[in-house]
Specification:
alpha/beta, Urease, subunit C, domain 1, TIM Barrel, nine-stranded mixed beta sheet, six-stranded parallel beta sheet, 12 helices, 27% helix, 22% strand, globular
């Protein structure tokens, strides 16, 4: 008896072109793509004229479990992912207790997921002072790469490395064949900047673009010297784009991400008490935003990921000087990006590249495209439908969001993770169970 199932649509994105097709799936993998009217022995889910494209991968998600599950836990994070057309997330290493900076910490992280996952989950390891000896054990335990920061996050334990440590970190990660992710703000320009006050303008001035530019220049130099693969996390300053483009043109192994909030909002539009917009690096002026869009279009920026970092609402109180830095948008990334892209005349093929293909390349997951041999990670959605963001309907742990009340284009109907339907017509599939991922 055949174990194959099928998904049929009038608009399947095959090599970026909408094509009537039937996708055939076995054991979580796409095994064939047939004509729309073909038949198979197994059941077929016909979604009519909904667009079917590769499901999203989000490689920058902060799940605070164990230790801080009241900030964000695996049940709510993966539920939000499923509702947002995301089939796999890669968790960042420093928000939990213990941190994912040893193989033992990774084991604790994995244990905290038991029975909670709606989509598949993998992990980054963390590089903090003194733990380079842990890189190979974490690599052998299945992390997808290693994340580092050049300034402390503000959590309980020191977690930053120095600019002078970049060479050693890149050599160590390159020795195990994995990338080094860098939260790239240099401490010097931040120390020289005025301290933040309670209003947004003072916070923006306290995180000048020079901090990103100096840090990214140091990362480029270290990657050039060592030959290691560096990945720049959540780029907000377009001032760094020329040096990044030059480095890539010269063959330096460097990839770059940005986030939906940097591509949607402008500093001019943020009210002084609107701490739901606080993130680090900050949202910069509209002119900077448009240059980031150009960086995406010309290929200097590879991908757009959420940097999903929610917190309890009380941590956003007290003005910009004290509020937690983080924006939660895991569930909204596809409609946010489609709303902004379509407004600029940018088509779906670019979205697939930024939201699916490039994150798959960073993680080396067999995903990101609809073709035989790829994971059956798929999303069916209506790009013409509009909705207004109602925070209480979001699946994340806490509902505070800068997108509240915003009208977005693109309604997600179904999400499949490795061939399993995890979201259907506005509801999480109760029986859906995600798996733990390891690098290949």
């Amino acid at each position: 008896m055949s174990s194959a199932t099928g998904i049929a649509s009038d608009r399947v994105l095959i090599y970026h072109a909408p094509t009537p097709a039937l996708i055939v799936i076995e054991n979580g993998t796409i095994v064939d793509v047939l004509d729309r009217d073909a038949t198979i022995e197994g059941p077929i889910e016909d979604v009519g004229d909904l667009v079917v494209m590769p499901a999203l991968i989000d490689t920058n998600v902060h799940v605070s479990d164990p230790g801080h599950s009241h900030w964000e836990g695996f049940a709510t994070a993966t539920g939000a992912a499923a509702a947002g057309g995301v089939a796999a997330i890669i968790d960042m290493p420093l928000n939990s207790v213990p941190r994912t900076v040893t193989a033992a910490g990774l084991a604790r992280k994995r244990a905290a997921t038991r029975g909670l996952l709606k989509v598949d989950v993998g992990f980054w390891g963390g590089i903090v002072p003194g733990n380079l000896i842990e890189i190979r054990p974490m690599r052998d335990a299945g992390v997808f790469g290693f994340s580092s920061a050049l300034i402390d996050s503000g959590l309980a334990e020191p977690d930053s490395i120095g600019l002078e440590d970049l060479d050693g970190a890149l050599q160590a990660t390159d020795a195990v064949g994995l990338p080094l992710l860098v939260d790239a703000e240099a401490p010097g320009p931040l120390l020289a900047a005025p301290p933040p006050g309670d209003n947004y303008r003072s916070f923006l001035n306290s995180r000048p673009p020079e901090a990103e530019v100096e840090a990214i220049a140091a990362v480029i130099d270290a990657a050039d010297r060592t030959g290691g693969w560096a990945h720049i996390l959540h780029l907000s300053s377009a001032d760094a784009l020329p040096m990044l483009a030059a480095a890539r043109g010269a063959g330096v192994r460097i990839t770059v991400e940005t986030c939906p909030h940097y591509l949607t909002f402008g500093a001019e539009d943020i009210y002084d008490d609107a701490t739901e917009f606080k993130c680090s690096p900050p949202i910069r002026p509209a002119e900077n935003r448009e240059r980031l869009w150009q960086g995406l279009l010309d290929g200097t920026i590879d991908m757009v990921v959420s940097d999903h970092s929610p917190c309890p609402p009380e941590f956003k109180a007290g003005g910009f000087a004290r509020a937690w830095s983080g924006i939660a948008s895991l569930e909204l990334r596809l409609p946010i990006m489609w709303t902004e892209a379509s407004r600029r005349g940018i088509g779906l093929r670019h979205l697939v590249r930024w939201l699916c293909e490039a994150p798959a390349a960073l993680t080396r997951l067999r995903a990101g495209a609809i073709e035989p041999g790829r994971r059956a990670d798929l999303v069916a959605w209506d790009p013409d439908a509009e909705f207004v963001v109602e925070p209480q309907r979001l699946h994340q742990r806490h509902h505070l969001t800068p997108y509240a009340g915003r009208s977005l284009r693109g309604v997600i109907h179904h999400t499949w993770s490795a061939g399993k339907m995890v979201f259907a017509d506005g509801q999480l599939v109760r029986a859906a169970k995600g798996d733990l991922l390891e690098h290949q």
